[in-house]
Amino acid sequence: MTETVEDRYQAELKQVDIDHHKPTAGAMTGHIVANLVVLANKLQQAKWYVKGPERFALQPKFKQLLVTVQRQRDELGECLLSEGEIVPSTTKAFTEYTMLTEAGQNKYQNASWLVDKFIHDFETSNLFVSRAIKLSEKEDRPALMQYLTSLLFENRKTIADLQAFLGNDARTGLDDEDGDDWD
């Protein structure tokens, strides 16, 4: 018997539900993909609307980060596919799996507020990246682990750069918050 498109999709939904109740590296990485989609939307909004004297420094930075985040999403999706995983690919899935929030009124916030929110968005994303690294190591998925480790470094570098814009050290306001409670 040949599976229909609907049969395949229903099987995917069932497997995704199973994987999210007992997290796998693939499921956790799906959350990262969703976070990258929302982060790209937020960066686009900030690039378009950032105001004040900081605009001249931040608009190119937001543009560069937008390109980076879109590249990461594509590469991470390719990595998941090469591991035999399903990549979230619909607005519904992105909305369901992201841990980031967005709001239209954010375009009216000042530059420092936007930068601070991006710092926390990258930090939130790193919670999922760190967990996915541990799961990929446990599941013996070295290629996925290697990509995720590079992603973690890129995110930490971005956090340090954005913190510097605010006049802060790399971990200011982050290490004293609740840590990774996934263990």
Describe this structure in words.
The structure is a single chain. The protein has 183 residues and is mainly α. It has six helices and no strands. The chain is globular, with a radius of gyration of 17 Å. The chain has one domain (5-165): Ferritin, core subunit, four-helix bundle (Ferritin), CATH 1.20.1260. One of its GO terms (molecular function) is ferric iron binding. It comes from Furfurilactobacillus rossiae. This is DNA starvation/stationary phase protection protein.
The gyration radius over C-alpha positions equals: 17 Å
Number of helices: 6
Q: Kindly state the number of beta strands.
A: 0
The CATH architecture comes to Up-down Bundle
CATH-assigned homologous superfamily: Ferritin, core subunit, four-helix bundle
Q: What would the CATH topology be?
A: Ferritin
The global form is globular
Strand content: under 5%
SSE arrangement, N to C: HHHHHH
Question: Level of helix content?
Answer: over 70%
Organism: Furfurilactobacillus rossiae
Protein name: DNA starvation/stationary phase protection protein
GO molecular function, one term: ferric iron binding
InterPro entries: Ferritin-like (IPR012347), Ferritin-like_SF (IPR009078), Ferritin_DPS_dom (IPR008331)
